[in-house]
Amino acid sequence: MASQPTPCSLSAAVSAWADQLNRVAALDDPARVASLFDEDGHWREALALTWSLTTLSGRQALATPLARGLANARATAFRIDEKRSPPRMVERAGVRAVEAILKFDTETGEAAALLRLRVLPGGDVSPTAWTLHTALEAIRGHDEETLRARREEPVYQREWNGPNWLDRRNIASRFDDREPTVLIVGGGHAGLSVAARLNQLGIDNLVIDPMERIGDNWRKRYRALKLHNQFHSNHLPYMPFPSTWQRYLPKDRIANWFEAYVECMDIHFWTRTRLTRARRFNRSEQPDRALGDHWEAHVQRADGTERVLRPRHIILATGVSGAPKIPDIPTLDRFAGKVVHSGAFADGAAWRGKPVMVVGTGTSAHDVAQELHGQGARPVMVQRNPTMVVEIEPSAQLYDGVFLGEGPSIEDRDLINTSMPLPITLQGHRSLTSQAREQDRPLLDALEKVGFRLSSGVDGTGWPYLFRSRGGGYYFNVGCSNLIASREIGLIQYDDIASFEATGARMKDGSLVETELIVLGTGYHGLEHTVAGFFGDEVAKRVGPVWGFDPDTAELRNMWTRTGQPGLYFTGGAFSQCRAYSKYLALQVQAQELGLLESGSAH
């Protein structure tokens, strides 16, 4: 039987590895650095050593860049961070390992590292690293705590008739006398997360959104909508949800929380305001060179007036999808009823007792069909491609294991989550997907019995990679799958449709499936379409694809990092992604404002 390492032995193994790294960090010696890693070791970097987000896998591939990064950044004093979770035994992707949070110093500031050392079959801890994650925490002298202390107001003002805090906040939010340093387009959880981070770094920013009221991007969606994963992973920065809340948050609770968050985090937010177009100007192109490189952003206000803002940075936080995707469906133009994309569908009450067709079997299509069924309509789903179906409990939650249960703080969990290199993440997800399929076997068998075509994701890696690579293709079952399996919601295959007619779909067997409404749950275009609409085709081409994995960096393309277009950034994805990576995006903006980093692509 293998021995179980003690807490002291875990710390000793981690400290021994850190000491070796300290001895070679300044040498720029790839061979010495390589000797500290397993043959299949990984290094994931987040700004600490190279000002980039990148992952390198394999001892030989990571050795030279890591050695150069350590030397150039003057990284020193790697040691266990006594203020964070202590070294502990974990299992990641089926591998037993010691997981430890380190801290270290660089020329720029304070940084963290997440180290994993394999536990060998006999119980000893490997002297070489399986994974290393390096992440910038703060720029020296400009960390959040220092900046917060500088902003602290006197206990009281001698002139009581002067403007108070609320007066000053209202005046500042109007931006009458200055330009925002950063313009954030989109007021959902992505935009709010990065706005809050920038505020804490003292960087003036403004959020704009076309919605009438903060939170309407959730509030105005269909009535029954809830988050499909538990609230533990979905907190916003600095203000976690109350522990008394239900595990699966309803849309209106999220919407109301967004309003409170904007107020509590002092976020400047213009509702009923949309970006219409923006152009980048270099310092040499402007008579007023004091502005420096900046955008000229035209925004339309609620009263129809236009305001021109001149921020140095624009962050698109409009979600990871662009405009609704309306596929070219042959003969659909013959249908005489109403056709609407799922993004514009709000309430099924108007269709009570009527036949409705939902094209697609992703999450939105399932939710729309279930809403229609609950309102007494007679929905039929049209499946175009195989879809992954996962029971919301317990199977869908397996992939969020880092955030569940007692243990580390949310900050430590975020570091653990961002530390996972893509190859190891996929390895772990294959195992979890296999486990989920076995747990969900009764439901999946019932679905296949009625003709539903199932998927296990890309190469069996499950729904998270589907989300990160294509933004959909899966459904967490919150009841709709049971309705399909019991035939309470109908199902037909798109390939069995011969053509559409005025009153419905004519099947290849000659039968007619009647409908009065067709809802297209057919997904969304990529953000490239949004970029072209705001900034023009040339900028869209310069930026390239957004979202989906870059094969060179094993990171999501153009997310939370400098892009090919100076001054333009993107944020989006799940709450947990936006919360963790907004920190790194804000630090890059801060570094540019301090003159430590140039704008433009990080690669």
Q: Helices and strands in order, then pairings?
A:
Elements (H helix, E strand, L loop, with lengths): L6 H18 L5 H5 L2 E10 L6 E5 L1 H14 L3 E5 L7 E5 L2 E11 L3 E11 L5 E15 L4 H8 L13 H10 L7 E4 L3 H12 L4 E4 L7 H4 L31 H14 L4 E2 L3 E8 L12 E7 L5 E4 L3 E4 L21 E4 L13 E5 L3 H12 L3 E6 L4 E4 L18 H9 L3 H18 L1 H9 L13 H8 L3 E4 L2 H6 L4 E4 L3 E5 L2 E4 L4 E3 L2 E4 L6 H9 L1 H7 L5 E2 L4 E2 L11 E3 L4 H19 L10
Parallel strand pairs: 1-7, 8-9, 8-14, 9-10, 14-27, 15-24, 16-17, 16-24, 17-20, 18-19
Antiparallel strand pairs: 1-2, 3-5, 4-5, 5-6, 6-7, 11-12, 12-13, 21-22, 22-23, 25-26
Helix pairs in contact: 6-17, 10-17, 15-16
Folded structure, characterized:
It is a single chain. The longest helix has 19 residues, at 575-593. The strands form 7 sheets. Strands 1, 2, 3, 4, 5, 6 and 7 form a 7-stranded mixed sheet that branches. The model has no long low-confidence stretch (mean pLDDT 93). Helix 6 packs parallel to helix 17. This protein is globular. It has 603 residues and is of the alpha/beta class. It contains 17 helices and 27 strands. The protein starts with 6 loop residues before the first helix and ends in a 10-residue tail after the last helix. The chain has 3 domains: 7-139, Roll (Nuclear Transport Factor 2, Chain: A); 175-322 and 527-593, 3-Layer(bba) Sandwich (FAD/NAD(P)-binding domain); 332-520, FAD/NAD(P)-binding domain (3-Layer(bba) Sandwich). Helix 9 (363-374) links the parallel strand 16 and strand 17.
